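Q: What does the assembled structure look like for these inputs?
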Amino acid sequence: MTTVITVPPSLDDETFEQVLEQVVAVSPDQKILVDARHTRWASPYGLTGLLTVAQSRAERAAFAGPEEENTASYWARAGFYRHAAELYELHGRVPRAREAQAESNVLLEITEVSRSDDVHTVVERIQSRAQAILVHELNLDPQATMRFAMTLSEVCQNIVEHAGQGGWVAVQTYNYRQRLGRRAVVIAVCDAGLGFRRSLESTPGWKPRDRWDDAAALEDALVRGVSRYRDPGRGQGLAGVRRFVGKWDGKLSIRSGTARIAIVPAWDDAVPLLEGLPHFPGAQVQITIPERVTSG
Amino acid sequence: MTNHIDVGSVLRRTVCDLYSNLVTRPTGAAVRREIEGVLTGLDSPSLTVIDFSQVGLLDFSCADEVVGKLLDGVRRQVIVTDAYVLVRGVRDDHLEAIEAVMQRYDQAVIVETEDGGWHVVGPLDDRMRRTLDVVQSRGRAGPAELASALDAEMVVVTEALDGLVARRLVMRDDDAYVSLQSVM
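A:
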């Protein structure tokens, strides 16, 4: 029997939870059909998240894409179908990506990250476009471009070093009207691998504390800079990401297992630490840097 | 003799000739091992300038490998004996990563930044910092001369100089202390 998983009309980091609630109710060895026929919009987090849903299933999942032509075409140009074809049994019409019509707001189309070389590729690709968009469209300082690429490098490396399998990254700008009322650049990095708790538990000599769960693991990694490696230089990547996000009034959220931790700016009302979410493997990271409002 | 290592060239030679960004830990480790290989072949004492001017991005993982671990090995003399290192060609974004790494290792390094000035990057107590400033301004000085310039007791200055030598921030030459930049 195939269970239908309904994708909401608008798919972002919040509404993706609706997908996960349905997915975790079905044993991984049972067939699911991810039904996005009525979806009209998806954030980079939503698109990369859908790929991780397939990655988390033992039985190959089926997928039905958006019926709305513009939406389907956009997903194709963002690189979604290229990866989905390897993971899902695709149903319905699959649009072709036309290279000539590359999206101006896609800084980095969905890109697989499984090895260190992939991180080099991601950084090389983003640098040329980031300067133009971050500085000229989002009014960020030119210095932000390099730090943006550093941030991207660090979050992608988390997949290579901790996930135990590949994941995906995507970077887009869009008009963040609902929450922010201005444009923003959004990085999404998602995998369905080990996740933070299991990664930290693999530290040699690790022993559980009184309170040890996904939320505690996220706090250790993001707030205290704990790494499963003992080297003194480890654990700096996420600290650097936090500094970058803080400096540019951005938002960072990391979901892993049953918890989500967030560095929340004044313009957002997210809960800093959310527990008791449907269990989903791996880590799903979203970074949002808003357009800078210049005075005068 | 001063040795010059162009990190950008090392990166392209050892990892990939298309890369200009120093990102990911395996890349940083490969570059560090190559630099360590060069350092071990030098006569001691040696002064090496590590030049980042041809490096695009430097992320925290690579800063840890190429600066943090390298200098930790130099300071503890596990890789080479009696080696000194200066860093140059560093942009602001490089500096952020290097500063973070130096804090974690509780180490300091002398860095030439974009403005052409030399700066100590990393934790260093105030006495050592002031003593280093005087050594750098004079190029070479003895403890008595430094104590007089700093208006400090000899024992305090000697202690600060011992700390600077242990951190490989000044060279000792007989009874005098020599700034690394003056040797270049």
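Chain B has a mean pLDDT of 93.
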